[in-house]
Task: structure prediction
Amino acid sequence: MPNPYIEFAAHYTCPACAKAGTLRPNLSCLDINGEPTIIAVCAHCLVQANMTAVIAHHDGLIDNMSNQTAARDTIYSVEVDNVDAIRKQIADNMFLTDLLATKRSNLKSLVYLDVGYGAGYSLYAATERMGHVMGVDLYDDSIRNICAAVGEPTNLELKGDIAALSQPADVVILWHTLEHIPNCPEFIGALRTKMLPSGCILLQVPLFQPRAVVDVHFSFFGLASLRSLFFSTGFEEEDYWFDNENGFVTYMAKLPAS
Ligand SMILES: [Zn+2]
Result:
C-alpha cells in the first residue's frame, strides 16, 4: 500500500462527494478489529472518510460486495422457529414509522422503500402501516425467514437492485446504509430516479468515533457533509436529529414538489 500521508493528492476520490484529490489524511486510530486505520477529512464536503478503506477499495484489495454480505450468517441471521422472538423484534422495530408519522399524516397512501434493510424487522413492521413496501438488499434470507415464520404481507416487494423496483417511492429509508457506499452522489442520483416529486429520504449514519470504524464503513458524515451531499443532488433539508448517546445522526431530506 502506498503511504497515504504522502501520496493522497490526485489518486483517490471522496466516498461522500466523489471529488478527486480532496481527501486530507488527518489522524490514525484502531478500528473495531484492532487494525490501524487512517481517517481523512474531505476539503470539499468535510466528511471524515476511512482513508484505509478508500485506498483498499480503489486498489481492488477489498471486495465490497463480499464484505457487505459477511453479516448474512451472523448479525442478520433469523431463527425461523422462534416465532415469539420474531414478533417481539417486529414490535420493537416500529420506530421508523413512528418517526415518519410525526412528519407525514397519510402513511397508508405512501410507497415506502428501504435500501439496505438488513435483517428486515423494520421493513416487515412498515408493511403494517404503509401503503406499498419495497425492500432492496444484497440478500433476502432473513426477511424471507421472518415472512415464513409470521406470514407474508401482501404489500411487500423484495428486490436485489433498485433498478428492478416496480414503482417510484414517496419515502426512502437508508438506515445505516450510506456509510457503506463507496460513491454516494452516484448512489443518491440513481435513487432519485426511483422517487416521486416531494419524496423524502430518512437516513441514519454513525458519527466518527473509533468504535464506529470498520473496513466496510467508508464515510463518517456530519451535518455539513450531509448538506453537501443532498444539496448537490437536488434535495432540500427537512430535519435532523443527533443521537448523542449512540453517536448517530438522523437526517431527513426531501425533493421539491416538481
Ligand atoms: Zn468529499
Summary: Helices lie at 51-58, 64-69, 83-92, 95-101, 121-127, 141-150, 184-192, 223-232. Residues 14, 16-17, 19, 22, 42, 44-45, 47 surround zinc ion (CB under 6 Å). The chain has a mean pLDDT of 92.
